[in-house]
């Protein structure tokens, strides 16, 4: 059974054997076939697991492209100590400066290509590691709108909750931060006016060390709902999974159920570095589901038996693939046609330039 019926000839597209030693060993630039392993109906795929993100945070070998980037761990963010207060000041100031990019970033061609397949009912469900809400936007939904079409494995940046469970919209929380920190609001307005914006790290995190400014003057506001309950609480956390934090059981269970319900799986634009995603691949293989990994460079899937892989950037082929799969409906359905003409197109990030910027020596 064909998984991808036709790919436009691409010099960088290779179909890799199960245990590839080089992506050049078995080049087939036009056609990738996923063999029939079930009696499922003739469809392209019914589940996509997406990892293409707002801004690339890892290079082709899986390394963080900014070698100075140090992620914040869950226990650091929530601990009720002076150190925890300092960690939250650091996190929320950097997030405050980076959130405008999250709020205004548009979906790329891959987001819209997958949205077209969802709209057509060919790939009705997506499990995404992204936290930016761009899959929602490509479907014409608000990033805050819950839908069973998209399971956000690692949560969403568009919500914030306090340690007592009160949830607010991230836009509203941004307004709270602005009101509590007028000097930083003025700084942010100036960067927007001049276009001289600092580099954004993964998930909207902006470094300010080069400004020579300390974090300890930044005010993280109290939770208004807690104040109404006579509680003093400024421990806020975005609704995303931090390093060292476990995925909620309901999300974990649902992700396994979706894999079990699907007949085949496409994994696109991810190195599968996090075990929460990698175990879904393993589960699919254990269930003898056909699996195709579409990604540039090495990934954690490379040593897994029984899968196929194409080494190519999804944005280079996604439109042609969708048109080949959907046939005439790709042009006759106005929604699909619009989706296939939409999406931000950006050249790949040269991570050597990022390293030079981080270490100009």
Automatic annotation (TrEMBL):
InterPro entries: DHS-like_NAD/FAD-binding_dom, NAD-dep_sirtuin_deacylases, Sirtuin, Sirtuin_cat_small_dom_sf, Ssirtuin_cat_dom
Family affiliation: Belongs to the sirtuin family. Class I subfamily.
Domain Deacetylase sirtuin-type, first and last residues per copy: 20-356
UniProt-listed PANTHER family: NAD-DEPENDENT PROTEIN DEACYLASE SIRTUIN-5, MITOCHONDRIAL-RELATED
Any one Gene Ontology cellular component term annotated for this protein: mitochondrion
Keywords (A to Z) from UniProt: Mitochondrion, NAD, Transferase
Cited PROSITE patterns: SIRTUIN (PS50305)
Membrane-spanning parts: none
Organism field: Mycena chlorophos
Chief location: mitochondrion
Name under which the protein is recorded: NAD-dependent deacetylase
Compartment annotation: Mitochondrion
Domain of life: Eukaryota
GO molecular function ontology, one term from the record: histone deacetylase activity, NAD-dependent
